[in-house]
Design brief:
Chain lengths: 82, 236, 770, 82
């Protein structure tokens, strides 16, 4: 079976995010005053073949810990689509 | 009276002086316009210089294109006024929709700083009319997001109407491997709008327009502004 | 002048909130020892608050106080007619023609880069840029000196790739060309990479701004980025061995924002130009603490700060955290009250803020409040001056003596023809194009000689002259003989500068060593400094500043001694510049200097015969000086077409590098060289791969050979015609009394430029080793 | 009311994604053979103050169309958390 995995890698809370800051300013300048706490990271999308959703999540987690996220500065979240 | 050239300074522009000096050496009256200004102070031509406007955060040129000065630049271009975008300036023109396509991360995924060889393919523009058709130019590139990409239709349209202004080539013959430093589609280094008054390119003529540096290959981009006579797109 | 006395002042300060009381445990956690703690109590006449302890621990860390090195640094020659500003400021400054001056400085960011290579390297570049533009100088060049473990492990490749990307992304964005650098790979750096960044800036001598606080009642402003919890204790972090402990300290990672740096650069230069500031300094190591305390001490005044006024990025920060934060892209400004509004207007133009956070006082005290509460009150001068100084024991390690005495055991591998491609494929010798192609080397449209040759050369706009810049260090020589190695390092830097036709002016140095409390390490340190001093005296190139980085140790032991030397030289007429590579078939090849064939410490022994050892060549400072002066003279006379010095890999490698052409040459040239003229008691190994100093390979149009020889003779420089430049894609042929050797120049070129890319093909998966 | 908005901006299908390719290759080399079709884009996370979830989505959509995504090369997806 194959699953679509969405990984969201974002700068860890407290870690400076210059990109998020710049985009937040830009949004305000464009009149989107309602936007705040903008953080920018990487979105990774992939297909994972696995026995079941749990196994797919397990694999994805391993990939994040090993490669996709930088443990020094980033946190990540996973989403598995059947 | 001499041609007035406005060089727009965005926060993070870092080739602003290089463009200003090149335009001045070409014999124009070149001056800076601040990104927060709203008029071009009577400019005959406009240059959007290289650099990292707003740090190139989000996407190169994505934030700068909303600067207060940009409506004036768009108006100037719509009226047939010459606008040159160099490197980051090219990225801004694409983000602003003044030129088609987009400039994305280099194929090699890293910044590339090196001399490249270019062929001038379209001389009927505000910035290349002093070059011989087919002229070979050597000048530096220095960018991380220089891979020109666009829909197949757009590419076809650009090629069909000879809107590719400069193309990456080898010192002899078509580009092989590293000759195209960023993986741009069709080895495209620079393009023009249909009227030829708006031109953008990734390489840096502003770093090849000074005899003291031993390279004048880029000077034509600045002298061409002086001899440009706008003509209706139909006339092409 | 100083307001403080040496008797223990009576000062008062109260703990902030429910901060923990200071115990011996706390003191040790702050990398201070009992003796230092007693000193603190003596200065205060009481126990310090936690905030005060943090402040002392930062300023009394090795990084800020130089407690193990100051007495050695004092022995450097630091004066000369060209010196405008020697050590003691954020950067050194040397005089140039027509009222111009050059400010330059090198600094290390080793430990942060070991933990997070990309950000560590990026913020290293950011810091050194600020050190230069706070002087009122516009940065015109950056250089970097890097050390890593061998590229055969993924971890080392990951660190290498990350550091290079970090250096590039930061400097590229700010818009300062990288004109040079060096990268070396050796096992000793595996646990402990070195990242040294150098910046060169240009200013009108009359605009020089010093970082001394003056004027009681003047205002202190925090300018630039807001303050977060980044890098708290970076300063003391940089002063301890790397260990699992430092892994646990990871949250300290500082993130660089080159965009804000660029705004800060423009705003700072505008403030200085329009004479709006009394003094300005970046908040570097130990952030607000060191910048404010150093500025106060330099001006002999007191200061009072209110940490509750400092713009913060994270909620609930304590005075301790605010004082010790190493958030990047921040400056501390001293200004007259009447000019604050004008300053804020300039900052606003550059989308920055400048917020008053304190004032200059007359009581000589370093006082920190948070709102109403005084959380720290310390006699300012003593905070800087009374840090205990140490002169550790200094004894040469036995292992070194043995290695120096030894020699390689001849092996069948010793095929002198096969040795050359082998050496060119060694990452330490191979082309670093993979690195400098990621660095913008032409922004600012002033680059005359880009990376890929001996030294970088840039022109100074609207003047006829230019600058040559380089950074060098041969750690293998230093490991075997720190004194000769120290001399050799300065000599190589000077040769590189002189090869371009520029006259060496002065140096900055970054002294990277292991734990100074180890006698054998401190021996390396003192001997290397003695060598650097002697060479600088002989060349009249004073030391204008630098930086010390100790405790470069990992579980695998101390690094090789690595005192990186950054040098600038003056090229009086830019049209006299000399490139490194042969340009025309038929040009005559001349070898300058004496060839004895010394193989001790050579790359040939190390990389071909697997023996790192032997006695390196003794550096003849007189010969080096004469050679430098000749190179400048011959460039002025426009008599040479190229000049390239012989260093690692000896004559064979130097010859090949000159023949193969620059990184973007269309074709490699051949060369035929006849060395039969050299006395046959020099072995072929020695002739080809010996690493004698004071040697340079030049190419000369046939018509000029005699003129060059005459000029050389008049400088007392040995000069011998050894061959001619061959055809494109030709052969490189060397004939000696004992043999003939031949290589395809194109094949060598491929090996030389392919060595590092070949090893770095899988950067994406190496990232798994973070 | 405030809402947490997650924006996922990914290279449009058909647009070459060398970064995704490099990461996929790396994952395979690291033994994650089950991963395929890796695409890499941007994850943007922000707080939006709005009357209700629908309004928050509306605002976020405008931000994407105007600034956050490049219509020439990128697609985006939105997620609103109460
Ligand atoms: N290796 C050295 N050689 C000469 N001067 C040095 C050396 N190390 C430090 N100094 C001088 O000591 C002063 C303080 O150094 P440092 O703390 O590195 O300054 P910064 O505030 O830029 O970090 C500087 O002026 C520096 O030039
Ligand atoms: Mg400093």
């Amino acid at each position: 079976m194959t699953f679509t995995v969405h990984v969201r890698v974002v700068p860890r809370a407290g870690v400076l995010d210059p990109q998020g800051q710049a985009v937040e300013h830009a949004l305000h300048a464009l009149g989107f005053g309602g936007a705040s706490k903008v953080r920018i990271g990487r979105a990774i999308e992939m297909t994972v073949s696995a026995a079941n959703a749990g196994d797919a999540r397990e694999q994805a987690k391993k990939m994040c810990d090993k490669l996709l996220a930088n443990p020094v500065t980033e946190d990540y979240e996973l989403e598995i689509e059947g | 009276m001499t041609l007035r050239v406005a060089v727009v300074r965005f926060p993070g522009s870092n080739c602003d002086f290089d463009s200003l000096h090149s335009a001045a050496r070409a014999g124009t009256d070149a001056y800076f316009v601040w990104h927060r200004d709203t008029d071009l102070k009577g400019a005959d031509a406009v240059i959007l210089p290289g650099g990292f406007s707003y740090g190139d955060y989000l996407r190169s040129g994505a934030i700068a294109r909303f600067s207060p000065i940009m409506p004036a630049v768009q108006k100037h271009a719509a009226a047939g006024g010459p606008v040159l975008g160099i490197c980051n300036g090219f990225q801004i023109l694409c983000e602003a929709g003044m030129l088609p396509g987009a400039l994305v991360r280099n194929g090699r995924l890293s910044f590339v700083s090196r001399p490249v060889c270019l062929q001038v393919e379209q001389t009927e523009t505000a910035f290349t009319n002093t070059y011989e058709p087919g002229a070979l130019l050597r000048m530096p590139v220095a960018h991380g997001d220089g891979r020109f990409t666009a829909t197949p239709e757009t590419i076809r349209e650009l090629e069909a109407n000879r809107r590719v202004v400069v193309r990456y080539v080898a010192s002899a013959g078509p580009a092989r491997g590293e000759d195209n430093p960023n993986g741009s589609l069709n080895d495209i280094a620079g393009i023009a709008n249909a009227e030829g008054n708006v031109v953008g390119l990734m390489p840096h003529p502003d770093r090849a327009a000074d005899s003291a540096l031993g390279n004048l290959d880029g000077m034509g981009f600045f002298t061409s502004m002086l001899s440009w006579e706008p003509r209706a797109a139909a006339g092409r | 002048m100083s307001q403080t006395t040496t008797s223990s002042a009576t000062t008062r300060a109260e703990p902030f909130g429910n901060e923990r009381p200071v115990t011996l445990q706390t003191v040790l956690e702050h990398n201070l020892n009992q003796r230092e703690y007693d000193g603190i109590r003596q200065i205060l006449g009481r126990n310090p608050t936690l905030t005060e302890l943090g402040i002392f621990s930062a300023l009394w860390s090795e990084h800020c106080s130089y407690k193990h090195s100051k007495h050695v640094l004092k022995t450097f020659p630091t004066t000369g007619p060209q010196v405008v500003q020697g050590p003691g400021e954020n950067a050194g400054v040397l005089r140039l023609p027509d009222g111009w001056a050059v400010a330059f400085k090198i600094e290390s960011h080793n430990h942060p880069s070991a933990v997070e290579p990309y950000q560590g390297a990026a913020t290293g570049v950011g810091g050194i840029l600020r050190d230069v533009f706070t002087m009122g100088a516009r940065p015109v060049a950056v250089l970097n000196s890097l050390r890593f473990g061998p590229l055969d492990t993924a971890r080392n490749r990951y660190l290498f790739a990350g550091v290079v990307k970090g250096v590039g992304d930061y400097g590229n964005c700010v818009g300062v060309p990288t004109l040079g650098g060096e990268v070396d790979f050796a096992p000793g750096y595996s646990g402990n990479p070195l990242v040294n960044a150098m910046c060169v800036g240009l200013l009108r001598e009359s605009d020089l701004t010093l970082a001394a606080a003056h004027g009681v009642g003047n205002v202190l402003l925090a300018m630039g980025a807001s303050t977060g919890r980044d890098g708290i204790h970076g300063a003391s972090f940089a002063s301890e061995d790397l260990s699992e402990k430092s892994e646990a300290r990871r949250p300290q990672v500082q993130v660089g924002d080159p965009f804000t740096e660029k705004l800060l650069l423009e705003a700072t230069l505008e403030l200085i130009e329009s004479k709006l500031v009394v003094a300005i300094q970046d908040m570097g190591a130990a952030g607000l603490t060191s910048s404010s305390a150093e500025m106060a001490a330099r001006g002999g005044v007191g200061i009072e700060l209110d940490t509750s006024l400092v713009p913060i990025r994270e909620s609930g920060m304590t005075p301790y955290e605010i004082m010790l934060s190493e958030s990047q892209e921040r400056m501390l400004v001293v200004a007259e009250p009447g000019l604050v509004a004008a300053i804020q207007k300039v900052c606003e133009k550059w989308e920055l803020t400048a917020v008053p956070i304190g004032r200059v006082t007359d009581d000589g005290l370093f006082r920190i409040r948070h709102g109403k509460i005084v959380v720290a009150e310390i006699p300012g001068q003593r905070l800087i001056d009374d840090c205990p100084m140490y002169s550790p024991e200094s004894i040469e390690g036995e292992a070194v003596t043995l290695r120096r005495a030894g020699g390689p055991t001849r092996s069948p591998k010793a095929d002198l023809t096969a040795a050359l491609p082998l050496l060119l494929d060694t990452p330490s010798i191979a082309s670093k194009r993979w690195v400098y192609e990621q660095y913008d080397s032409t922004v600012q449209a002033a680059t005359l000689l880009a990376p890929g040759g001996d030294a970088g050369v840039l022109r100074i706009a609207d003047t006829g002259f230019g600058l040559a810049v380089t950074v060098d260090c041969n750690s293998r020589l230093l490991a075997l003989d720190p004194y000769e190695g120290g001399k050799a390092t300065v000599a190589e830097a000077a040769r590189n500068v002189a090869c371009t036709g520029a006259r060496p002016l002065g140096i900055t140095d970054c002294l990277n060593f292991g734990n100074p409390e180890k006698p054998e390490v401190f021996f390396q340190f003192t001997e290397a400094c003695r060598g650097i001093s002697d060479a600088c005296r002989a060349f009249e190139t004073p030391v204008t500043g630098g930086n010390v980085s100790f405790y470069n140790e990992s579980p695998t032991g101390a690094i090789d001694p690595t005192p990186t030397v950054g040098m600038v030289g003056l090229l009086e007429r830019i049209d006299d510049r000399v490139p490194s590579h042969f340009s025309a078939t038929g040009d005559q090849i001349l070898l300058l200097g004496n060839t004895r064939g010394v193989l001790g410490g050579s790359a040939y022994w190390a990389d071909v015969l697997d023996f790192v050892g032997g006695q390196p060549a003794t550096v003849d400072l007189k010969a080096e000086r004469a050679l430098q002066q000749f190179l400048v003279a011959v460039a002025k006379a426009r008599l040479v077409r190229s000049a390239h010095d012989c260093s690692t890999g000896g004559l064979a490698v130097a010859l090949t590098e000159a023949a193969m052409g620059g990184p973007y040459a269309d074709a490699a040239l051949g060369a035929s060289v006849d060395l039969t003229g050299y006395s046959s008691d020099v072995t072929d190994e020695g002739l080809l791969y010996g690493e004698d100093g004071a040697r340079v390979v030049v190419s000369v149009s046939p018509a000029d050979v005699d003129a060059v020889a005459t000029l050389a003779a008049s400088h007392g420089v040995p000069c011998r015609r050894v061959g001619a430049v061959g055809a494109p894609a030709g052969e490189i042929r060397v004939t000696t009394s004992n043999g003939k050797y031949q290589w395809s120049s194109s094949a060598l070129r491929q090996t030389y430029f392919g060595a590092i890319p070949r090893r770095m093909g899988h950067v994406a998966e190496d990232a798994a080793e973070k």
